[in-house]
Amino acid sequence: MSQVSSTEAPALTPRFCFDERLLRDFLRLSRSTIDDSITQNINALITPAKEGFDPSSTAVRQTDSRSRRTIDPAACQGFKENVLFPSWQTRSDVLNYCAGVATSPDPDDPDLILRQTESAQDRERVVDERLDPYSGRFFPREARTESLANLIRNERTIEEIIRARTWGMVSEKCSGSTPWQEALDSWRHDRQK
């Protein structure tokens, strides 16, 4: 059985977080490695020749549920503990770190002076909406911390959806009924011992 590996955690720095393309690429790669291919990852856990090959099994198409092979519970548990949960934890760590960066002061913001200048110019503008009904509109540049905060909020929503879908497949194939949040929290708790 070839074991799928989780993506490595990137070096967490504010620069990494503010490079939104790099942050998105990391999340996309991590999700595609584990979650997007969850069916293949779970099916790789099946040991097909456990009972031996039955030549009559190829004579008729098997459509009933008895033809489904069961997955060894130890293999399922190993996959969850060594591949799935570490991948989820790495992504959680990245999102939590970048959320902290997004809520911290940003003295190195390259657009800070430009935004301050635009804001000062906007306060000095004379607006006559009778002459130009659109002249009252002003859309200030968004600080990069605000942009990062929006990105983190969106990615956390995506993460919730992906984890629910992935856990549904894992629960179906590995016969489990615990919600993914509880299973992940239990894994985290066991790791801290």
UniProtKB/TrEMBL annotation:
GO cellular component: mitochondrial intermembrane space
Taxonomy, superkingdom: Eukaryota
Region (Disordered): 49-68
UniProt family annotation: Belongs to the MIX23 family.
Protein name: Caffeine-induced death protein Cid2
Organism phylogeny: Eukaryota, Fungi, Dikarya, Ascomycota, Pezizomycotina
